[in-house]
Amino acid sequence: MPKMKTKSSAKKRFKLTGTGKIKRKHAFKSHILTKKSKKRKLKLTHDGLVHESDENNIKTMLRLK
């Protein structure tokens, strides 16, 4: 059998932290930024963590599980 491939989309979007949590970028920061407040854009800049309920799905996409 061939090796299982990771999903390319997941590979580009998620990174693993040292403790095993999954980092992600915030959405809504690519265009139409004029109507968004400075505070809102600043909060979208920082990385977030994937919710616990989604972690299993993403780990299977990344072939970690």
Shape: elongated
Give a count of the beta strands, DSSP E runs of length 2 or more: 3
Indicate the low-confidence ranges by residue numbers: none
Distance between the termini: 18 Å
**Element string (H = helix, E = strand):** HEEHEH
The strand line-up of the biggest sheet is 1-2-3
Mean pLDDT: 95
Structural class: alpha+beta
Q: Calculate Rg over CA atoms.
A: 15 Å
Strand content: 5-15%
**Helical amount:** 25-40%
Total DSSP helices: 3
What's the story with the biggest beta sheet?
3 strands, antiparallel
Explain this structure to me?
The longest helix is centred in the last third of the chain and has 10 residues, at 52-61. The protein has a three-stranded antiparallel β-sheet with strand order 1-2-3. It is of the alpha+beta class. The protein has helices at 8-13, 38-45, 52-61; strands spanning 15-16, 22-24, 48-49. Keywords: Ribonucleoprotein, Ribosomal protein. InterPro entries: Ribosomal_bL35, Ribosomal_bL35-like, Ribosomal_bL35_CS, Ribosomal_bL35_sf.
Sum up the structure in keywords.
alpha+beta; elongated; three-stranded antiparallel β-sheet; 3 strands
Question: How are the SSEs placed, and which strands pair?
Answer:
Layout lengths: L7 H6 L1 E2 L5 E3 L13 H8 L2 E2 L2 H10 L4
Antiparallel strand pairs: 1-2, 2-3
Please provide a brief summary of the model.
This is Large ribosomal subunit protein bL35. This protein has 65 residues and is of the alpha+beta class.
